Amino acid sequence: MLMPFLGRSLLDTRILSKTEVEAIFSRADHLARGLHDGVFRALRAPVVCCLFFEPSTRTRMSFQMASYRLGLDVLTMELSAGSSLSKGETLGDTVLNFAAMKPDVLVVRYGQSEELDQLLPHVGIPVINAGSGTMAHPTQGLLDAYTLRREWGSLEGKQVLIFGDVRHSRVARSNFDLLSKLGATVGVCGPETMMPLPEQMPGVRVFESLDEALPWADACMGLRIQLERHATKDLDVSAANEYHARYGLNPQRLDLLRPDALILHPGPINHGLEFSPEVIRDGRSRVLAQVGNGVVIRAALLSLILGLEVGT
Ligand code: CP
After folding, report:
1. pLDDT (tens digit, 9 = 90+) per residue, 144-202?
2. Which of 82, 116, 217, 289 is most exposed, with the fewest beta carbons within 10 Å of its own?
3. Rounded to the nearest whole angstrom, what is the distance from the C-alpha of residue 55 to the centroid of ligand 1?
4. Claim to verify: residue 174 and residue 124 sit in the same structural domain
5. How far, in Å, CA of 280 to CA of 106, rounded?
6. CATH number of 34's domain
């Protein structure tokens, strides 16, 4: 017997007759054909699936915001809470299971994971890296360069200083690549223990002191100390004060920056470490402009990957 399905609950298979099971299978066959040849994608918005295996505020929310602005549907999974990661499922299996649901694009953030580094190029649907270990944060690099390009028109011949914990920063790595590709010279400054090896940053100028580096810069970008990627996971008060005294941007050092220089930070900021609280209020700060540009850059990327018409 076939009861109408409209408005019914399904709490147990025992309530289904064989005919009803066949009706569900028949509908599934129809949908599988439709999903395969794209008919249903034309009826429904594409689905963006965001998997965040590390914490995030800006990247996660701006991918969601960008998706909604484009009229896309979004699914988001954060860390292990509420997922089967807490039951021991691997990151790789989690990604493969999401990919098997055939979203139109996957957005993935993760820590150091060779398993995912190797898997993500082969999942069969487009994947956007939303920050991976210390290796890459491509959309952050794009939005940083875009923020500077909107200010300057071109990055050709400009000098950009990146200071702080450069060694553990995926943002720095993506910026080295993009800024130099667009014609800028990159400089770095920070404690020796937080500097990449010279061969990891060809063409990058290394400054011994922030006081020497700041007058050189057309723009400077502060980075937080990525304690979660250090062997020692915390910083005592005296070490924090010493760090801020040597490598922190403070009111005295703001005076060393040129009047037209720009101040960037990918966030999150640790006030009192890389920036004193005054920095964010300085008229040269573009930190919140970066966040706004993050939505536009991510929308641009999603629309290009999905082949969406966005008008002229
Ligand atoms: N810049 C950045 O990646 O910030 P979130 O970690 O908050 O996403």
Report:
1. 999 999 999 999 999 999 999 999 999 999 999 999 999 999 999 999 999 999 999 99
2. 82
3. 8
4. no
5. 33
6. 3.40.50.1370
